[in-house]
Specification:
Layout: H1 2-15, E1 28-35, H2 42-57, H3 59-65, E2 73-80, E3 86-95, H4 98-109, H5 122-133, E4 142-148, H6 158-161, E5 170-178, H7 192-202, E6 211-215, H8 220-233
Parallel strand pairs: 1-2, 1-4, 4-5, 5-6
Antiparallel strand pairs: 2-3
Length: about 240
């Protein structure tokens, strides 16, 4: 826990340098976390960043995002790798109209990775994402969208990170990028099914949490589109009690 407290203090200082959206009611705070660890080469990163921009540009996704200007979606995005690397690509922005969404898409699509480590510090990335969500206390739902193509291999595990109260009321969904040529059920080169099982067992969090698999980075845009449609279509409120 001492290590996690240290990480949280460091994250708080980092996020304090980032811009935040003007406080207002919003129905969903969504922070997108993109894996840039050593397993992601330059071509794959380009497919990932362009795929995210394409998914946000999809007409159905746009329609759901822009459903209500009175209670908009707040969006942020960052890339992550080792314990010392979490880089904010898109600071918090309220997607309260087409122009705001277009600005976010343009900023994300034009980003070039700023990698400062090769390891996969997933727990640290999740703590960073949860700390960003603390900037959005006015949002009714809070979700971390974590993309990754491997297991945590340095720093606190996702389950260690989830011991922190910072994750209260936070949902964690995953986009699992599997290698369609791998058939291993153990080791560092897992089959897409085995990797998805790891994310379902160790990473996703919350009663409506889910993992979607992409069959390689070439499938990233379509997988992200499916994930965003599912997240944005979730009911804002729970079932009415009779």
């Amino acid at each position: 826990m001492a290590r996690i407290r240290f990480i949280l203090r460091t994250i708080a200082l980092s996020i304090g340098l980032c811009q935040s959206a003007e406080a207002q009611s919003c129905r969903l705070a969504l922070v997108l976390a993109l894996d840039v660890s050593g397993s992601v080469n330059a071509s794959e990163y380009e497919q990932q960043i362009n795929g995210l921009a394409a998914a946000l540009s999809d007409p159905e996704v746009r329609s759901l995002i822009l459903f209500s200007a009175d209670a908009p979606v707040s969006l942020a995005a960052f890339e992550w790798s080792s314990r010392n690397h979490q880089y904010v690509i898109q600071p918090w922005i309220s997607l309260d109209g087409p122009a705001a969404l277009d600005r976010a898409i343009a900023r994300i699509g034009s980003h070039r990775k700023v990698r400062a480590g090769l390891k996969t510090a997933m727990g640290t990335a999740l703590l960073f994402g949860a700390s960003m969500l603390e900037q959005q206390p006015h949002c009714w739902q809070k979700t971390i969208d974590l993309s990754g193509d491997g297991k945590n291999n340095i720093g606190p595990s996702p389950q260690d990170a989830y011991q922190s109260v910072i994750f209260n009321a936070v949902t964690v969904n995953a986009l699992v990028v599997g290698d369609p040529t791998s058939t291993s059920v153990e080791g560092t080169s897992l089959s897409p099914q085995a990797l998805r099982q790891y994310y379902e067992d160790e990473v996703i969090r919350g009663p409506n949490a889910f993992a979607i698999i992409a069959n390689g980075y070439a499938d990233y845009a379509q997988a992200m589109q499916r994930k965003l449609l599912r997240e944005l279509a979730l009911p804002i409120f729970g079932a009415v009690q009779e």
